[in-house]
């Protein structure tokens, strides 16, 4: 291979590097943050599921979480269905 053919691949390589920094790297970071949040859930945390349901964690199992969504109403969700923990600080 001569130098011209190697330089011809440079834009393609630069595009892949740019795509990694723009798309893949931030997605992996968000995924890691979500996994950390889901593994640190505790009883009593106020949460919102990915479906938009608000509740308070009543119990936690290995792969499931039981939420209290109203008086005497408990619903069991997969741990991965917890979208975020709600902070009441305003």
Automatic annotation (TrEMBL):
Pfam families: YajC (PF02699). Keywords: Cell membrane, Membrane, Protein transport, Translocation, Transmembrane, Transmembrane helix, Transport. It comes from the Bacteria. GO terms for biological process: protein transport. Signal peptide: none annotated. GO terms for cellular component: plasma membrane. It is found in: Cell membrane. Its main location: membrane. SMART domains: YajC (SM01323). It is a single-pass membrane protein. The chain crosses the membrane at residues 6-24. The keyword Transmembrane applies. NCBIfam families: yajC. Belongs to the YajC family. This is Preprotein Sec translocase subunit YajC. It comes from Lysinibacillus sphaericus (Bacillus sphaericus).
């Amino acid at each position: 291979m001569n130098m011209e053919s190697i330089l011809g691949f440079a834009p393609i390589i630069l595009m892949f590097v740019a795509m990694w920094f723009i798309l893949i790297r931030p997605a992996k970071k968000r995924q890691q943050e979500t996994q950390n949040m889901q593994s640190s859930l505790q009883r009593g945390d106020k949460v919102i599921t990915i479906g938009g349901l608000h509740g308070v964690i009543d119990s936690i199992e290995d792969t499931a979480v039981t939420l209290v969504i109203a008086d005497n109403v408990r619903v069991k969700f997969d741990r991965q269905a917890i979208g975020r923990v709600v902070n009441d600080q305003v």
